[in-house]
């Protein structure tokens, strides 16, 4: 038995492009009312035009946590409940550690860790009050298997995994499910930061996925019957070697 997303209220952070946009699209197609939180004004306008009346957009800067809190207040004032948070926004940095820019690391770590954690915390009071909800974080295969080509990114996703597993236990008594999706390489703008030779090798080997693969996984997780949680869902291209 599966549950329906009809009339559910969902939030997707970083939902104006890439994985987040496709997840928003599939949530809308499955009957949810979706709020996309992103800072890219033009991309938000395009998403709203493309996905119709069940897609709402709020321009936020995830580094300014008060804008996220205000967005949650706005959603609750309009809908009176929040059923789903997909904490998807993230960034990528790879390369040799001794060649990296620590200032760039800080920005990525703040987005991948702090912004994700704060976004999750922002929806918890409403979900705890209503005794239901789903929090799903976009993690990575790097959160499970250390990837030598991307030590800082790997560390950030290990933090996401630890967070997901601990808050899942804390929130379970309130009827809130928490899970994480761990995709391998997905064709998104984040690939712009990959080493060109590594990217070329992965493309030639067919070791890449599409945003739709992650969105389908999200919908699968959210539609399990009440009382069943998909704690971790790993998605890999068939030829991806880890």
UniProtKB/TrEMBL annotation:
| Signal peptide feature range | none
Q: Which GO terms describe its molecular function?
A: oxidoreductase activity
Question: Which UniProt key words apply to this protein?
Answer: Oxidoreductase
The cross-references to InterPro entries, in alphabetical order and at most eight, read: NAD(P)-bd_dom_sf, Sc_DH/Rdtase_CS, SDR_fam
Q: Which domain of life is it from?
A: Bacteria
Presence of keyword Transmembrane: no
- The answer on whether this UniProt entry bears the keyword Membrane reads no
Q: Which Pfam families match?
A: adh_short
Q: Which family does it belong to?
A: Belongs to the short-chain dehydrogenases/reductases (SDR) family.
**What's this protein's name?**
SDR family oxidoreductase
Organism in which the protein naturally occurs: Brytella acorum
Q: What is the lineage of its organism?
A: Bacteria, Pseudomonadati, Pseudomonadota, Alphaproteobacteria, Acetobacterales
